[in-house]
Amino acid sequence: MNILIVEDEKRLADALSHILLEQKNIVDVVHDGADGLAYAESGIYDCIILDVMLPSMNGFDVCLELRRKKIMTPVLMLTAKDTITDKVKGLDAGADDYMTKPFSPEELLARLRVLTRRRGEVILDEMRYGDIVLHIDSSTLSCKNSDKKIHLNFKECEMLKAFLSKPNVIISKQDLIVKIWGYDSDACDNNVEAYVSFLRKKLTFVGSQLEIQSIKKLGYKLSTKQ
Ligand code: CA
Questions:
Q1: What angle do CA 158, 211, 139 make, to 5 degrees?
Q2: Is the pLDDT reported for residue 169 higher than 90?
Q3: What is the pLDDT of residue 118?
Q4: How far is the CA of 186 from the centre of ligand 1 (A)?
Q5: How many CB atoms within 10 Å of residue 80?
Q6: Which of left, alpha, beta for 3 (phi over 0: left; psi -120 to 50: alpha)?
Q7: Domains of the chain listed by start with CATH number
Q8: Ligand 1 centroid to 50 CA: how many Å?
Q9: What is the tens place of the pLDDT at every residue in 19-38?
């Protein structure tokens, strides 16, 4: 998942980020409310962990503004405030859940799982298109026309998921960077090109009739070989 953490206590933000990265999420961290709103408005996140007491704009206002702009990304409010009034205020502002500090990492992860499930996202075991199957649990690519299977690393798997969710559609390098490396990354076109090249080799290895085509100046698309 792609997760945004908006938390001004840097040690807590780092700890959260560490827990979520260990679970193979893509994480962006910002330390004030206005930055949080700007990042969240991109709409690329699967979930936002939002502190209430923040510099420049509080979490209630960030959440209200997001919902006003019809950005419905699930929000988990995380705060030291634990009075009923504050909980109600958070939920009224459009937060989906509310946790008070201190909290256990296990509880945080469990709540994130519920939030992202509640959104109606189907957690897929596999994705299929053409002659290929991507087995998500095992990060394995297989081809219906051969017995060959190959393991994909995390970023290859994320990239193939992006292509499989939009087959035959051109995806820009920038969109791939945001999807795979996160909004705030230093990744560049060369990183995308490298991973496209790895994926092409793996598609060839399993004997697929699909290929990742380069579309000049626009990006890439997954299609059947011409
Ligand atoms: Ca705070």
A1: 30
A2: yes
A3: 58
A4: 27
A5: 12
A6: beta
A7: 2-118 (3.40.50.2300), 126-224 (1.10.10.10)
A8: 9
A9: 999 888 899 999 999 999 99
